[in-house]
Amino acid sequence: AAENACRVTLGQVNQVRPKLPLLKILQAAGAQGETFTLKEVMHYLGQYIMVRQLYDKRQQHMVYCGGDQLGELLGLESFSVKDPSPVYDMLKRNLTSAAM
Ligand SMILES: C[C@@H](c1ccc(Cl)cc1)n1cnc(-c2ccccc2)c1-c1c(C(=O)NCCN2CCN(C3CCCCC3)CC2)[nH]c2cc(Cl)ccc12
Fold first, then answer.
1. Which atom from ligand 1 is nearest to the alpha carbon of 87?
2. How confident is the prediction for the chain on average, in pLDDT?
C-alpha cells in the first residue's frame, strides 16, 4: 500500500539478512550489523577466506573449506572461485530479504 511504499527508502531495497550461521562467518571477517547488500556479503566472505587462509597458496582459485564453518554451510570440502554456483546456492539457503 502507499504508506508502506514510502517507508522503504532506495538505500534499503537491496539489503539481505543473513541467517545466523552465515552472519557469524561475516562477523568473523569484520562485518558489523545484520543486513547487507549482496556485494558486501561477497566481500566479507572473500575476506573470511583470506583471513582463515582457506585458499591454496599455489592454486589461488582453489578454496579448501572442509573442517571450517564455511565448508559446513556450503556442504563442500573445496571449491574453485571460478565456479560460483555452490556459493550462490548456499546464499539462497542462508539469506532472507531485509526489505519490510
Ligand atoms: C571474483 C571474486 C569472486 C566473488 C564471489 C564468488 Cl562466489 C567467486 C569469486 N573472487 C575472485 N577471487 C576471490 C578470492 C580468491 C581467493 C581468496 C579470496 C577471494 C574472489 C572472492 C571474493 C572477492 O570479494 N573478491 C575480491 C577480489 N579478490 C581477488 C582475489 N584476491 C586474493 C586471491 C588469493 C591471493 C590473495 C588475494 C582477493 C581479492 N569474494 C569471495 C567469496 C567467496 Cl565465497 C569465494 C570467492 C570470493
1. 7
2. 92
